[in-house]
Amino acid sequence: MVEHALVSLSAVVILGIAAQWLGWRVRIPSILLLLVFGIVAGPILGWIHPGELLGSLLYPVVSLAVAVILFEGGLSLSVKEFRAIGGVVAWLVTLGAGITWVIGTLAAHWILGLDWPLAILLGAVLVVTGPTVIGPMLRFIRPTGQSGAILKWEGIVIDPIGAMLAVLVFQVTAYSGAEHGMIVATGVLKTIAFGTLVGLLGALTLGLCLKRDLIPDSLQNPVAVMFVVAVFTGANLLQSESGLLAVTIMGFAMANQKAVPINHIVEFKENLRVLLIAGVFILLAAHLKPSDLDQIGIASFMFFLVLVFIARPAAVFASTLGSKLSFREKLFMSWMAPRGIVAAAVASVFALRMEEVGLANADVLVPQTFFVIIGTVALYGLTAPLVARRLGLAKAEPQGVLFLGGRFWVREMAKVLLDEGYPVMLVDNSQHNVSAARMAGIPAFYASIFSDTVLDRVEISGIGKLMAMTSNDDVNSLAALHFAPLFGRAQAYQLMPEDEKQLAAHSRHLRGRFLFGKDMTHAALTRWFTDEAVVKKTRLSEEFGFEELKAQYGQVQPLFLITEEGALQVFTVEGTIKPQAGQTLISLVLAQPEAEELAAAVAQATP
């Protein structure tokens, strides 16, 4: 018995992590593989029996895991971002959710043949989308405009709303009477009140503890988890199912306070989230019974199609009436509503509660929910990138640049590219550099480049290149390696190491492509700009090409080349780029008044 439990627990961890690694490797949503692995290991092969393994602890464990995941999601929400998209988000999680609920309920009753109480509950459960699925999809697609930010906010905010809606429906369907209806309505208001109050109180208390150094550095991450668990449980004890709202608000409040830095907590939560998602999805999928799979049929496919092609577009277009979103952005948002971990957890919990109160056909809820989860993740995950490109909201080869490091000369390079119309984003852990970049009109973000929050909170629409340009060679190499799966190994660049002896330690598969030239280290570039070098843009022609430019200025270091088609090319030590007439060269030159006057005269004489 002990050996069987050990094997089952090991299988959960191994399959969960393996599924996420394989999803990264083949570039498909890992949640799809997690569900497939769980179903194969559970109802098909019988390797994992979560009910026997955890017994009555299964759903409390799942609930706590979901709480931590939603707290981590709340940490990615920004007040500044909300000001621009808050109106659309509010309509999506209210009017849009209501439309989805109504259409889902009607389809569940008329297509699946469910009784009205169960149909209403299934419609409520499927209102939620999946932030754990939408986030990775958006990072991969990188859509332009506001659609990506709106989808991220919707996925996180609607989860606690959907859970509260499911509670309301369950209580109304499980009991009857006008008096109880008033109690239910009061309960919803109490859920919102207690969830908000406890979440804010938890954020305030944790923030004060960190500000007054009451928690040592070594315990800050565990204590943060303790606060999440305490807030979730405390809110639920005060009012049933208010815990998810409480932890989401707590994460949002912590992310937008300015008193204490929370970067290290965010990074820890990201790693913890990976483990929790792996475990929860494997356990929930494995908890399905073989008989559950028999309930999937033609009606299930028709129900799924109604949710995708009718409910979601209706919800999006109704919620975005009067907004500044383009028709293409609305179409893209209509094609992004994958269900995820909250839908799976809520369906599993309420199926058990419905069985306890004796409601008929409760066993239908879980398999139909999991079928919708698998279907939406597969459909949207495999087709959304193509749809975004066809709608012109994403490019197959985006040309923008993500700069790591914010020294004054990095800012000057970024400014030139920004003026040429290329999206740029500067990330640095120096508040001074970030502030200076923002004052120059350059989008900048204060964070560690290795944090997934950078991709969750930073607008990377149209960005397809990384240029790691810090003074730390190891950080540059790690950053290039970290972002190679996202941008592609060929579009991950870094500066040359300061010490030539370090070149042997920077194997090609463990670093990015070296920028500009063999002598272009961080110290060398700093010396160039100290000697009053400037970043110069030159339109090359047959009469005035690259050789003529070098003759004019003597010392010329090419940086970027803009082709006639608008593609941005980066010069590297390989020296494979050959500037041609009709292209625009961005280079580093030493400013010389005489040379400037001569170059201007040549430019005027050139027809």
What's the SSE blueprint?
Layout: H1 2-26, H2 30-44, H3 50-54, H4 58-74, H5 79-110, H6 116-125, H7 131-141, H8 147-174, H9 178-211, H10 220-238, H11 243-256, H12 263-286, H13 290-293, H14 298-319, H15 327-334, H16 341-356, H17 365-390, E1 400-404, H18 408-419, E2 424-428, H19 431-439, E3 444-446, H20 453-457, E4 463-468, H21 473-487, E5 492-494, E6 513-514, H22 522-530, E7 533-539, H23 546-553, E8 556-562, E9 568-570, E10 584-590, H24 593-605
Parallel strand pairs: 1-2, 1-4, 2-3, 4-5, 5-6
Antiparallel strand pairs: 7-10, 8-9, 8-10
Helix pairs in contact: 1-2, 1-12, 2-12, 2-17, 4-10, 4-11, 4-12, 4-16, 5-6, 5-8, 5-14, 6-8, 7-8, 7-17, 8-9, 8-11, 8-16, 9-10, 9-11, 10-11, 10-12, 12-16, 14-15, 16-17
